[in-house]
Amino acid sequence: MISIRKLRPSDRAAWESLFRAYIDFYQRVEPDLMYDRAWEEFQADTRLHALGATLDGKLIGITHFLTHPSTSAPDTDVCYLQDLFTAEEVRGLGVGRTLIESVVDWARDRGCDRVYWNTHVSNATARRLYDKVAVNRGFIRYQIDLPR
After folding, report:
1. For residue 52, what are the contacts with CB-CB under 8 A and spacing of at least 6?
2. CATH number of the domain encompassing residue 104
3. pLDDT(140) > 90
4. Does residue 145 lie in a domain region?
5. pLDDT value at position 137?
6. What's the CA gap between 20 and 85, in Å, rounded?
7. Which of 18, 72, 89, 112 is the 20 to 30 Å CA partner of 59?
8. How far is CA 103 from CA 37, 46, 65, 114, 116, in A?
9. Tens digit of each residue's pLDDT (9 = 90 or more) over 49-86
10. Helix orientation angle between 95-109 and 124-133, rounded to the nearest 10 degrees
11. For residue 67, what are the domain limits?
């Protein structure tokens, strides 16, 4: 049975392995400092939040999310599901769906107006799930990277 819970300090290595696989999937390279910073934020659980999916005691999926104000929901925050990743060997078992449902429950409990996320148009596997659990509003994302 798949269980969802907050990440524990003992999850660090397994979480990082999954997060690095997620970053690799999107053909990105991030410095080690990014993983350290993200982990610290998730452990603080104030600005950035994370949940893990476990099966037989093993971390098999992760999701990262945050809330922020919105001009179209002025009285409530909205929840942005930033990252979602499951280990390849457990895909198709409902891990992603269960993680999404857990974020939705978390956001609902905090009075958020909605949960939303982005994915790459080429991510057909994830989009099959997303089309079942959410509405694609047809937006196209543009981005300007700022130098550090």
Report:
1. 4, 5, 6, 7, 11, 15, 59, 61, 62
2. 3.40.630.30
3. no
4. no
5. 93
6. 10
7. 112
8. 21, 15, 8, 10, 10
9. 999 999 999 999 999 999 999 999 889 999 999 999 99
10. 50
11. 2-133
Average pLDDT over residues 33-50: 98
Identify whether 117 is part of a domain: yes
* Contact of 15 with 7, CB cutoff 8 Å: yes
Establish if 146 belongs to a structural domain: no
Tokens of 59: 């971390």
Number of domains, the chain:
1
CA–CA distance from 120 to each of 43, 68, 93, 114, 125 (Å)?
Answer: 28, 22, 22, 20, 11
